[in-house]
Amino acid sequence: MADFLNLSGKTFLVLGVANKKSVAWFVAHGLEEQGAKVLYSVRSEARKASLNKLLADKPVFVCDVEDEAAAPRLAADIQDAGHGPLDGIVHSIAFANYSEGFKPFHETKRGDYLQATAISSFSLVEIARACKPLLTPSASVVTIGISSLQVTPDNYGYMGPIKAALESTIRFLAKSFSADTAVRFNVVGAGPLKTSASAGIPGYLESYLYTEKLTFRKRNLSTAEIANATLFLLSERSSGINGTTLVVDAGLGANFYDKEIVRLAMRPEQKA
After folding, report:
1. Is the pLDDT of residue 1 over 50?
2. Is the pLDDT of residue 67 over 80?
3. Domain of residue 262, residue span
4. pTM (2 d.p.)
5. Among residues 43, 152, 193, 220, which one has the fewest Cβ atoms lying within 10 Å of its Cβ?
6. What Rg value do the Cα atoms of the chain yield, rounded?
7. What angle do CA 223, 258, 246 make, to 5 degrees?
8. What CATH number has the domain bearing residue 118?
9. Is there a contact between 24 and 92 (Cβ–Cβ < 8 Å)?
10. What is the Cα 133 distance to its own chain's centre?
11. Does residue 262 form part of some domain?
C-alpha cells in the first residue's frame, strides 16, 4: 500500500518542540514526510524565536501551559488562523525542577511537585478540553510517557508518580470523550532516550548506559522509533487502540536477569 497510515492531507497539532532532538520534532517531521500538515505549539516567544530557523514558514503558536488561560487561547488562535479541524494532537510536554540537584523523594517540595504535575500531566486535560471543538469525530490524541511505572529510579524522583498520573489521565480522557465522540487517547511508553530534556536529569548518562545493556539488542532506542510508534497511534490503522499505553522499550522491561548484568553485579572483578 502506498499510504498505509493514511496521514496525508490531515492536520495535527504538536506541542513540545524544543530543538532537533525533541521527540515532538521527530513526530512532527515524520508527519510532514507522510504529507500531513503540522501546527506547532511552543512554550514561549523566546522558544519560538530560537526555533525560527527550524520552523521557518510553518504555523507556530505559543502556549505556556503553566498559564491556566493558555490552552483556551491556543485553541482560539488556531481557529482564528483558519487551521482546523484537527485530526490529532501530540502532547510531548514535561518539566521537573532539578535545579537543586538530586534529592530523596520524601524531600520533594510541594511547589516543584505541583508545577511538574500542572505542566507534565494536567496540561493534557486542559489542551484536550480547549481543543475538543476543533477535533474531528475520530481524531487521535497521543502523549509521551515512560516504559514502566513500576521501576523507581532514584534520579527520576517525583516525575515517576507524575507520569503515572499522565497515564491514568489518558484513560479517563478516553472514557470522558467517548460520550459523544470517537476521539482516542493513548500513551507511547518510551524507554530511555538521548534528548536534551533527559540530559537535564542528574545521573542520567549512567542510567542510560545501564538500560542499554538490558535491552535485548544491547542498543537503546532512537527517538525516531518513538516517533514512528506515535505516528501509528495517530493513524486510522490503530483505530482499535484506546486508553492504552504502547510500550516501546526494545525489550528492556523483560530482561532484568540478563546474564551479563547479573555477572557484573555479582562478580564485578570479572569485567570483560
Report:
1. no
2. yes
3. 11-270
4. 0.92
5. 152
6. 19
7. 35
8. 3.40.50.720
9. yes
10. 23
11. yes
